[in-house]
Design a protein that fits this description.
Blueprint (H helix, E strand, L loop, with lengths): L7 H7 L11 H6 L10 E8 L5 E3 L7 E4 H13 L4 E7 L16 H12 L4 E6 L12 E3 L2 E3 H18 L3 E4 L6 H11 L6 E8 L6 H7 L18 H14 L3 E5 L5 H10 L4 E5 L1 H12 L5 H15 L3 E4 L2 H10 L1
Parallel strand pairs: 1-3, 1-4, 1-12, 4-5, 5-8, 8-9, 9-10, 10-11, 11-12
Antiparallel strand pairs: 2-3, 6-7
Helix pairs in contact: 3-4, 4-5, 5-6, 8-9, 9-11
Length: about 325
């Protein structure tokens, strides 16, 4: 004997919970939405070069260019009109040396751009990346001694650069070299120089990732020898990532960062449950480049995929999203 199918009426009586009720219309979906992305959460990376009225397109990052300080200021004005949260500046000097001394040059590209943006009174948080890789001839994030990256010799140079950026007007400095003790060294340097109000956003969990390629092209910072696995984290290690965050928090970090974002969503969730500090996630160049390449092929809807990606990063625990999609995302959110 065959089974008798339950009638729709009987099934209706049995279904006490119907989640679809809250998906029936765009208005209802918006009302009950749990994760809401806003322009003020977004931070745009800007690559700053020396000189005046210069712009150099970056092929692997469509829509992005290396900009002289005056053009970076013009770009920042556009971003401020979109209601974005801030910018983070990376400097590319004309001349490099073995120790990256140009990172602390008050006439360098980052300091020059910071002063211009501060004087313009833009309603943006001004952040500066603190690392030596863009400034060294060898492309590594620290001083090389006997073929190795010397941690302790690097710390004073990072502190000097951070003080230089604070004096130029940075609200936040972001040590990204993954040197042990870098947050403590920078905090001490800032405080001794009278910049107690300058915050530190620590690249606490920064993996040695395959997704940094376009950035290295943009910044001219590919290592001349070896790789960065001796100081950047093994991407397979989640417990170690949390330990790095704990160390940076104890050293005085005001914010913690996870990088890359998409391959670290689990770390964001674990960090959100463990720390009360604001969390930033860096949606890195290679992650964005994949999306751009697929969209260019017509394989995905660029706008829909970009917003879904950013919301997923926020849902995992990020308060602040550093992304090359920041301007487009802010524009889309304004239009919504």
């Amino acid at each position: 004997m065959g089974r008798v199918a339950a009638s729709p009426t009987r099934l209706s009586r049995l279904l006490k919970q119907r989640p679809r009720r809250l998906r029936r219309s765009a208005a209802i979906r918006a009302l009950v939405r749990e994760t809401r992305l806003a322009p003020e959460q977004l931070v745009m990376p800007l690559f700053v070069i020396e000189g005046h009225d210069r712009e150099q397109p970056i092929p692997s990052l469509p829509g992005h260019s290396r900009l002289s300080a005056d053009r970076a200021l013009a770009r920042a004005r556009e971003l401020a009109k979109l209601g974005m949260g801030g910018v983070i500046l990376f400097g590319i000097p004309d001349a490099k040396d073995d120790e990256g001394r140009a990172a602390a040059d008050p006439r360098g590209p980052v300091a020059t751009a910071l002063r211009a943006m501060r004087e313009a009174g833009l309603p943006l948080v001004l952040a500066a990346d603190v690392c030596l890789c863009e400034y060294t001839t060898h492309g590594h994030c620290g001083v090389v001694v006997d073929g190795e990256i010397d941690n302790d010799s690097t710390l004073p140079l990072l502190a000097e650069a951070a003080v230089c950026y604070a004096e130029a007007g940075a609200d936040l400095v972001g040590p990204s070299g993954m040197m042990d003790g870098q947050v403590a060294a920078i905090r001490e340097g800032l405080d001794e120089a009278g910049h107690q109000a300058t915050g530190i956003v620590a690249y606490a969990s920064k993996a040695a990732s395959a997704f940094y390629g376009p950035f290295r092209e943009a910044a001219g910072s590919a290592p001349a020898f070896g790789d960065r696995r001796g100081y950047q984290m093994d991407f397979a290690n989640g417990r170690e990532a949390l330990r790095e965050m704990e160390l940076d928090a104890a050293e005085g970090a005001d914010m913690l960062m996870v990088k890359p974002a998409l391959t670290s969503l689990d770390l964001l969730a674990r960090a959100r449950a463990r720390f009360d500090l604001p969390l930033a996630a860096y949606h890195v160049s290679g992650e964005v480049a994949m999306l751009e390449a697929a969209a260019a092929k017509g394989w995905i809807d660029r706008r829909a995929a970009a917003l879904e990606t950013l919301i997923a990063i926020e849902r995992a625990g990020a308060d602040i999203l550093i992304t090359y999609l920041a301007a487009d995302a802010a524009r889309w959110l304004q239009e919504a």
